[in-house]
Design goal:
The protein contains no helices and 22 strands. By secondary structure, it is mainly beta.
Amino acid sequence: HTGSDGGPCVECEAGKFKPTSGSAECVDCSVNADSGTASATCACNAGFELVAGACQGCGAGKFKAVSSNGACELCNAGSYSWAGATVCVDCAAFSTSGSGSTAATDCQCNAGYTAGSGGTCVACGEGKYKGLAGNGACTLCAVGTALATQGGTSQSVCVSCDRGKFSGEGGASACTECGKGTYGSSTGLSGCYECD
């Protein structure tokens, strides 16, 4: 409140404050800060934190959702932010990032997914796998194995062909039956043997 000595007191309007009693005038809040009516202090706006007495924007990879003089927080893993953010932005589907990430490019495709067109992550196709996060290509299952599902996350999901079946090329989605006049006496074959 402010006012002349002996006169009526008037509330400080929003955006102004007065930390002491008496007839002194209300003072404007500093840049990037605000107050409600009748305030004795100002608070940093959302997206800003109090540093050495001034409200400074949250650094990239951090955010602050509410007005206060508290510190900005790191974005959680799987999200990112730019400087002065009030929220963190989630990475696109099937991708993740480390905590405190600063850009969409920090989001990398999960294991079992690869970067598709338009920056989206798509599942590795049948006969392929990818064991680590990143935007690299999926790896073909080895000759003699097959994978009938999408999104394989390790070489171990590529199943060896049963006896009597083979896969002659890497990246097979299914093993092929040995043809007439041929046989396969073991598992994991790249081709069948001619009958004698």
